[in-house]
Amino acid sequence: MVDVDLPDCGVARFLLLFDGPWATLIIRELLHGPQRFGELREALPGISAHTLTNRLRLFESRGLLTRTAFPEIPPRVVYELTDLGRSLRPVLDAMYAWGKAAPVSAFVPASDPA
Amino acid sequence: MVDVDLPDCGVARFLLLFDGPWATLIIRELLHGPQRFGELREALPGISAHTLTNRLRLFESRGLLTRTAFPEIPPRVVYELTDLGRSLRPVLDAMYAWGKAAPVSAFVPASDPA
DNA sequence: TGCACCAGTTACGTCAACTGCACTAACGGG
DNA sequence: CCCGTTAGTGCAGTTGACGTAACTGGTGCA
C-alpha cells in the first residue's frame, strides 16, 4: 500500500490541498500579514467559524501556517504563514491577474438578463 | 438586484470557475494542445464521462474553449482552448511549480505511517 | 448575579460535484 | 445480422465541503 493518493503532477498536488472555495481565500488573507481568528472571519464575509477552524487547522498540520495562542482573557490567537505558505504568493497572484483580466462573461452563469 | 454574485477580487472570481478538482485538470490537459473527448478521458484517469461533458460544456459557454464536432461516423469532437483559455497557463504553471517544490508532508493527510 | 468577550467546538443538515452503470445514434466490417 | 467504434445522456447514489444553531471556558464589568 504505497501512497497512491499522491499524484505526480504538481497541479494535481496543489488541488489536493485547495479543495473548496475558502481554502484559497484564507491564504489570500494571510498573505496580507498575520491575522487573528476574528479578523479573518470579518475579512471573509459568509465563512462560518466551523469552516474557518477546519481549514486553519488543516493548513497548520500541513506546515502552511503557524497558530499562536496567547494565554490571555479574552483569548487571542494569531495565524501567520510559514515560508511554505508565503511561497503560495505567485500562485495567488496569477489567479488574481487572470480573474481581473478575464471578461465578466467568463463568470456569469449564462446570458444572464439584468 | 445587481450581480452580487460576482466578487471584486480576482482570486475569488477565479475560484468561481474552478470549483472541483477536475475543472483545473481539464485545462491543464488542453494546454498541451487540442484534444478529443476520448483523449481527455484517457489523460484524466478516474474522471467520468458525465463530469467531463459537464465541465467541457461549462468552459465552452464561458469562452474558455471551443468545441468542434465533425459530422463523421464514429463521431469526432475536438476541444481546443481559446486565447482566454490559454491565458490560464501562468496560473497552472504557478500551481505546478508550487506542487513540485512543496514537501510531501504538505499533502499527506497526517503523520501517515508507511 | 449576570452579561459580554474571543476563539472556538459539537451536532446536525444541506448542497453540488462527482461516480458507476446502462443506454443511445449511426455507420463500417465480418 | 451483429459487433465495435465515439461521444455522449439519464438515473441513482456517494462524498465532502460547507452552513446554522447552540454551547463552552475564564475573566472583566455592571
From TrEMBL, chains A, B:
* SUPFAM superfamilies noted in UniProt: Winged helix' DNA-binding domain
Residue span, HTH hxlR-type domain: 9-107
| Any matching Pfam family | HxlR
Signal peptide limits? none
Q: Which UniProt keywords apply?
A: DNA-binding, Transcription, Transcription regulation
| Protein origin, superkingdom | Bacteria
Q: Which residues form a coiled coil?
A: none
Which InterPro entries does this chain map to?
HTH_HxlR, WH-like_DNA-bd_sf, WH_DNA-bd_sf
- What is the protein's name according to its record? Helix-turn-helix transcriptional regulator
